[in-house]
Amino acid sequence: MTGINFSPQIWWSAMDRAVEFANHMGKNLIQDFNFKNWLQNGSIEHNSLEIYQVSELEDILTGKYEYLQNNDYYYRVFFKNSYGKNVYASNISDLESKIFGQENVQIEYEFRIDALNHYITLHLNNWLTYGDYDDWFRWRLYYYFLVNKLDEQLSGIFNYYWSTILSQLNIQTHLFKSVEHYKKFRDEYEEINKNSDTFFLAHQKKLQLKKL
């Protein structure tokens, strides 16, 4: 293997195909669901910027790699006021000015699906191109954080979306830098695809039961 960059055309083709498949599955599971709209406008919430634990990666980070578990991305912060209404701000400083002496405030963070998906794509593409461990860890950090935070149906649809993308990248074996580079990718893809297959088969079974 000599390794040639994965071109934008390969990514666009894989993503277009994945969006179409994920949208079709989503419409069968969720009424009036539009995958592309959800991907662009959806969000999740978490009570901390520490997303490493949620991702449940088995990587042991020591020495120079410890910093990789840190995350500074969020879309906005919020807290629930005494009336039960969420109060939002773009950063912690602005939010604190809106608390007005309220005690025992639980600050939470909102993350946009499109931003998390961007980081997944960015770091995976960087790893495919350069092979750096930093990017290998980062794309999985954001991927599994999102998959583990979503509810069962959305998690399954998103996982199916990425399984479809990875399947298209998996056939481009000549673009990987080395056999070891490809095998590392393949092992992760097969794990994601296994989870996707389980969800897909359950989805097909539900469709068959509806027809009875």
From TrEMBL:
Species of the source: Chryseobacterium joostei
What's the protein name? Answer: Uncharacterized protein
